[in-house]
Amino acid sequence: MGQPVAEEVIGDVPLLAIEQLGKRFGGFVALDTVDLKVPQGQRLGLIGPNGSGKSTLVNCISGTLQNETGSVSFDGQRIDGFPAHRRARLGLARSFQLPRPFRTMTVAENVRVPLIYTVGARAGVHLTQSELEDRCMEVLSLVALQDKANKNPFDLTQVEMRKLELARAMAAEPKLLIADESMAGLSHSEVEDIVALLIRMNERGVTIIMIEHIMRAVMAFSQRLVVLVSGRKIADGAPEDVIKDKDVVGAYLGT
Ligand SMILES: Nc1ncnc2c1ncn2[C@@H]1O[C@H](COP(=O)(O)OP(=O)(O)OP(=O)(O)O)[C@@H](O)[C@H]1O
User: Fold this and answer.
1) Which of 39, 77, 240, 245 is the most buried (most CB within 10 A)?
2) In terms of Cα–Cα distance, which of 130, 133, 136 is closest to 111?
């Protein structure tokens, strides 16, 4: 509530600005002139059928893939061409659908690593050992995993593992978090739990792009909904309008 839905309402520089983004794999066009501006503080849902280009778009934003045409700007700065770790230090974090925690580390140590390599590596920042511990426990409390700090991640349940993945992303103190299918395979109440967690993170000032196929989660979370089909943005606006759009129903929701 109180959040502008469309990017045009914002006069300020958007946190993320993607312009005319294009990416091919050989002769296959995975992204075709995609434009997207995301204002600071927004909760944006990104949906589309399998293979529509959502992950490719996220990879071009986070730096694991390089776009061929167009541009990506973050916080007013052009970042396409920057390696992924540099983008992470600027405040861009993503979580993965399949969590990949370090096996030999505890839950707390898994959170400490991104803290050290992103926050601790920012210019002018020196975190003492006790500051590291405090921040680590703060992030674990945010995801309600403080009691599991000394466990091995592989002793966690599926939903706890997803929370750890989000905690690792949050440890980097991001301005933008891209949550890639954080809820796949979870029960109804676990999905609600993760949606509530993402909303709490957003309330702490983090702009969030959520990629998700579970529509009740998308609708509960999103202030704005963007639909990709065959590498093109076919709809962008208020979720309740977008899900009624006949092109969206025909290409995705009706299938
Ligand atoms: N490294 C790659 N090499 C060749 N083709 C690729 C590569 N990565 C993605 N693609 C193709 O690009 C298209 C878009 O894939 P992408 O993974 O971005 O879709 P998606 O919307 O994230 O799908 P899903 O919902 O299934 O995760 C697909 O046809 C995919 O096969």
Assistant:
1) 39
2) 136
One domain for residues 142 and 212: no
The label of the residue with tokens 């849902």 reads: 45
Residue 12 alpha carbon to ligand 1 centre in Å:
33
Contact criterion met (CB below 8 Å) for 225 and 45: yes
- Ligand 1 pocket residues where CB is under 6 Å: 25, 28, 30, 48, 50-56
- Give me the domain span that covers residue 113: 99-173
Pairing of the two strands 92-95 and 77-78: unpaired
Give the total number of structural domains in the chain: 2
Token couple for 17: 């600005």
Predicted TM-score (pTM) of this structure? 0.91
With both helix axes pointing from N to C terminus, report the angle between 107-114 and 129-142 in degrees, rounded to the nearest 10. Answer: 110
